[in-house]
Design a protein that fits this description.
The longest helix has 149 residues, at 148-296. This protein has helices at residues 2-18, 21-131, 138-143, 148-296, 298-322; strands at residues 364-367, 370-374, 377-381, 384-387, 393-395, 400-408, 413-422, 425-434, 436-437, 444-445, 450-453, 464-471, 481-482. A hairpin with a 2-residue loop joins strand 2 (370-374) and strand 3 (377-381). It is α+β, with helices and mostly antiparallel strands. It is 63% helix and 14% strand. The two termini are 50 Å apart. Helix 1 packs antiparallel against helix 2, helix 1 (2-18) runs parallel beside helix 4 and helix 2 packs antiparallel against helix 4. It has 5 helices and 13 strands.
Length: 490
């Protein structure tokens, strides 16, 4: 800049030295003022540029903090997944315990019914003995036989009664013991059930706390990013204003230079015209002096010219008769068509998780949402990048309608945009750099449905999926973009 201003000043001085004094002073003063103003604006821009550089360094520090915060969020996601699995396990145990308790209670009901039936039978036998006075014994029954065969019958009957009474009493004692054991087991299972319910309540409380901590970290991360965006936007706006002012001053400087250059051009034309007039006068005088000598030589020159012309005509005729070569025709070559490449086979789709959202692709997370560094320059990354081989299956993260499916020239390459309605809220998901597309605009897709293959199209430096989530509709400024980890655990 300083060199250009110095050159500008020297040029102006040279021009003013050759121009009339009338316009030189005013123009020189105007140009000097403009140059001074341009220097001041440049200094201000350099100052703002330094502040932007300082903010960029702050961004690098924030990127480091964001990486730590993101790592904490990833750990929380793992804890949340583990806690959720523990809750499912405890819930399953509770269901099994309830089923065991129900089965025990059914068995207890059966035992109670058997005991009650035997008790009634024993009570009936006791009443029968009481009615008969209780004086008849098994010995009286045997001795009262009228014959030997009657004795045998009575003995057999007595044995049957004794065995029946013994069996009833044994079954009664055994069932009573089993009843007591099962009632004790029910008490133990109920106590275990209470412990499991308490554990479940604690796990749910832990889960709520982990989710609250994640929400807090997400809010902190978003607040840091928004604050940096505001500060940089202010500096960029200020730099833009200075740039516009500088451009205006530069245009005025250029206009002034063009005006001065036009004056110099007119002055040069006048000088050239004067030189031409003087040269033509000198040439006219020299021509008059040489006219006499020219006339004397005219006859000799004419004869000599006629002979030379005849000789030249003869040589040209001989040359024309000897030249009969033809030019070979060039044959245009047609480039061979590039060999067709077959589309890579799609890899297995990721498992569809429960809930409204699922992971859109298998792979390694290479870039997070927020500020990072790309090719040595800080930038704001509006999504999450998942790297994998070309053709890796990409699935819809949630059910919805395809808004866009095609090639985007703004850097996304082959992309798919899907609009979702989750709990009455419109959310848009974006899938970029795809190698192939399996859906079309207006098509409805289910969560987990295959929509295309991972690729390297658009502004990309390797096969990966660039995945964005926007709370609301998508716009070019991406003002609705949020961290996908808010909804999906990668």
């Amino acid at each position: 800049m300083k060199k250009s201003l110095l050159s500008l000043s020297i040029t102006s001085a040279l021009i003013f030295g050759s121009l009339p004094v009338i316009s030189g002073t005013a123009s020189a003063e105007s140009l000097n003022e403009l140059e001074q103003k341009q220097q001041e604006l440049q200094q201000q821009r350099e100052k703002v540029g330094g502040e932007i550089s300082s903010k960029n360094k702050n961004i690098e520090n924030v990127i480091s903090e964001q990486e730590k915060t993101t790592a904490q969020i990833v750990e929380l996601d793992k804890k949340i997944s583990k806690t959720t699995a523990d809750i499912e396990s405890v819930s399953k145990k509770i269901d099994e315990t309830n089923a065991t308790i129900d089965a025990l209670r059914e068995e207890i009901e059966i035992l109670i019914k058997k005991i009650e039936e035997r008790t009634a039978l024993l009570e009936e036998r006791a009443r029968a003995i009481q009615v008969s006075g209780g004086t008849v014994s098994y010995m009286d029954v045997l001795l009262g036989a009228e014959s030997f065969s009657d004795f045998i019958d009575r003995f057999s009957a007595v044995n049957t009664l004794v065995a029946a009474d013994r069996q009833i009493m044994e079954e009664q004692a055994r069932d009573q013991k089993a009843l007591e054991e099962k009632e004790a087991q029910v008490k133990e299972e109920l106590a275990a059930l209470e412990n499991q319910k308490a554990e479940l309540d604690q796990l749910k409380a832990d889960l709520d706390g982990q989710k609250a901590e994640k929400s807090s970290l997400m809010a902190q991360l978003e607040e840091q990013q928004k604050e940096l965006e505001k500060e940089i936007e202010k500096l960029q706006d200020k730099d833009g204003e200075l740039q516009n002012m500088s451009a205006d001053v530069q245009n005025r400087i250029v206009a002034e230079q063009e005006r001065l250059a036009e004056l110099a051009r007119q002055r040069e034309l006048e000088r050239q015209a004067e030189e031409k007039r003087q040269r033509e006068a000198a040439e006219a005088a020299a021509a008059a002096e040489a006219k006499a000598a020219a006339e004397a030589k005219a006859a000799a020159d004419a004869a000599s010219a006629q002979a030379a012309s005849a000789q030249a005509a003869s040589a040209q005729a001989a040359q024309s008769s000897n030249s009969s070569s033809s030019q070979p025709k060039a044959q245009a070559s047609t480039p061979a068509p590039a060999p067709a490449q077959s589309a890579p086979a799609a890899s297995p789709k990721p498992a569809v998780s429960s809930g409204a959202w699922t992971v859109p692709a298998f792979g390694r997370t290479t870039s997070e949402f927020g500020y990072d560094v790309l090719n040595g320059s800080p930038r704001f990354h509006y999504g999450i990048d998942v790297a994998g081989p070309v053709g890796t299956s990409i699935v819809a993260a949630a059910s919805g309608y395809v808004v866009e499916a095609g090639f985007n020239s703004g850097g996304y390459g082959n992309w798919v945009m899907i609009t979702h309605n989750i709990n009455g809220k419109t959310i848009t998901s974006v899938y970029a750099h795809l190698s192939s597309l399996a859906v079309s605009s207006g098509q409805y897709v289910e969560k987990g449905q295959y929509i295309g293959g991972m690729g390297n199209t658009g502004y990309s430096f390797g096969s990966h999926l660039h995945f964005e989530i926007h709370e609301g509709g998508w716009n070019g400024s991406k003002s609705n973009a949020v961290n996908p980890r808010k909804y999906i655990s990668f």
